[in-house]
Amino acid sequence: MWKGALVLPSMRVPVKLYAALQDRTVRFRLLHAEDEQPVVQHMVEPESNEVVPNEAVQRGFETEDGSFVIVRPDELATIEPEPSRDIEVLRFVPRGSVDLPWYDRPYWLGPDGDDAEYAALVRALEETRREGICRWVMRKKSYVGSVFVRDGALALVTLHAASEVISAGALPRPSGREPSSKELKLAKQLVDALEDTFEPEAYEDEYRTRVLDLIEKKARGESVEIQRAPRKEAEEASLAEMLEASLGGKSRKGKRVA
What we know:
Layout: E1 2-8, E2 11-19, E3 44-45, E4 50-51, E5 59-62, E6 68-71, H1 73-77, E7 86-94, E8 103-111, H2 115-128, E9 130-138, E10 141-150, E11 153-159, H3 181-193, H4 206-219, H5 239-253
Parallel strand pairs: 1-7
Antiparallel strand pairs: 1-2, 2-8, 3-4, 5-6, 7-9, 8-11, 9-10, 10-11
């Protein structure tokens, strides 16, 4: 995706940036119902319902009083960050210091011509159990991220801005009664009963699979019967009763959950 270099004091490691995620979203085109030709979207002036050409569209930021501040593309260009290929490591922190809500999008960093320095950095981060907080500019946008070792390679994850992350302390705390000793014991038994190893390949996007299966059947001219799952009525039960029911079902099905 991109080439750059991890920059540390007295060390510069050329790297290549690779995507760590693959977009597998099933996308549909909008078609005209009469002739099934793709339709296009236009900007429309709401009062006259007339199409507004692209050259007549400008960007505006709506303020609290409902007015707009117009911002031109050339004005935005003047405040773009300076282009650079450096991923500057600002500091190293103990691995795990960055809490999960801060993480945004993951990437892989591979070596770009100097495997020895890349391998040395991987080894150093593994042995010290550190991750590096870094910043860089890519495609006219500045980023802050964390670089660490994962499966013997360097991973780079962009971090959210501080203003975007909501602390758990800001959430309302449960105000109900404390669980009884029986409920707590049953809950621990349920956790123990579901103990297993994480196998990511066992958790596929089942909805995407069903959508593609539907598309394939219709493409072959097969008729598709629409069946909706019956809605279950919620039943009131105590926490202890629900936990006991869960444990009963678990004992019948066995330990493994897939």
